[in-house]
Write a structure and sequence with these properties.
The chain has 299 residues and is an all-alpha fold. The chain is built from 14 helices and 2 strands. The chain folds into 2 domains: 54 residues, no CATH class; 231 residues, MetI-like (MetI-like fold, Orthogonal Bundle), CATH 1.10.3720.
């Protein structure tokens, strides 16, 4: 029986081999480079010839004046991205669910889903034009109401706000699809019972729709905890400028400058290892909470 089952599933197992090889090369093999965090790494001497310095790189990073500011910026931006990417898609899914025209639903879904397919390279150019303080559409609209132009990408207060809002705008279409799928799993008889009890659309939403969506909302929220230190490198790297480093610099851009520009490989490896360890702890916590709160398990 086992041999017959193995023979039947052999083609599926063989299909996994390319993915396993790619993962070994691009995911697990680079982990060897983490040893740089504990060395005074020299590219000529390599991993085996560089001097071992223990935790000195971590002490060096902790002593830098901007390290904790970068950590604060990362948590601030990532946290509000997670919150916004829950609230906005849920709200929009509820609004779409109230539309009676399927054609209107499809058109709106297509329209809001399109930015999800565009890279931040393309979107960064669009955002720069939209938020330009001189001739950007957003500032032109604000000017109609007598508001002075705002330098969204050059102001320390507005830059993180802009990163949060534009990230939500890009991704909420995908989130909406998830929550619309959750709405289809709600038993229609619950709505019928609510109508018999005299509940209107608002009461049905409060007492039937939202409780029905609660498990998937809780699941997406707790899984988002694993990304608390991922504020979005692609987006921020393409829009960040020195004028807003105080509030816009995040761990990933900090690592990039240390390693690629300043050639402090060991220091950048130390920051990356610290981020990986913290992210692992948050991912573990998020799956534990997902199991406890939403009955979601991988294994």
């Amino acid at each position: 029986m086992n041999k017959r089952k193995l023979k039947r599933n052999l083609p599926l197992h063989l299909m996994l081999i390319p993915g396993i090889i790619i993962s070994l090369i691009f995911v697990y093999l680079p982990l060897v480079g983490s040893v740089m965090a504990f060395q005074d790494y020299n590219p000529i001497k390599g991993f085996f010839g560089s001097e071992w310095v223990g935790l000195k790189n971590f002490e060096f990073i902790a002593a830098l004046p901007g390290t904790f500011q970068v950590l604060r910026n990362t948590i601030y931006i990532a946290f509000f991205k997670i919150v916004g990417n829950i609230i906005v898609p849920v709200t929009f899914a509820l609004l779409l669910n109230e539309l009676r025209s399927n054609k209107s639903k499809r058109v709106l879904q297509t329209f809001i889903y399109m930015p999800n397919f565009l890279s931040w390279i393309i979107l960064s150019g669009i955002i720069m034009d939209l938020f330009s303080p001189s001739d950007g559409l957003v500032n032109n609209i604000l000017g109609v109401f007598g508001i002075e132009p705002i330098f969204f990408l050059g102001d320390k207060f507005w830059f993180p706000v802009t990163m949060i809002v534009t990230d939500i705008w890009k991704g909420f279409g995908f989130g909406t699809v998830i929550y619309l799928a959750a709405l289809t799993n709600i038993d229609p008889s619950l709505y019928e019972a609510a109508m018999i009890d005299g509940a209107g659309r608002w009461k049905q939403t409060i007492h039937v729709t939202l409780p029905g969506m609660a498990p998937i909302v809780i699941l997406m929220t707790v899984l988002g905890l694993g990304n608390i230190l991922n504020a979005g490198f692609d987006q921020i790297f393409n829009l960040l400028g020195p004028a807003v480093y105080d509030t816009g610099d995040v761990i990933d851009t900090f690592i990039y400058r240390l390693g690629m520009i300043q050639a402090q490989y060991s220091a950048s490896a130390a920051v990356g290892l610290f981020k990986s360890v913290v992210s692992f702890l948050f991912v573990s916590l998020s799956y534990l909470l997902a199991d406890k709160l939403a009955n979601y398990r991988i294994f």
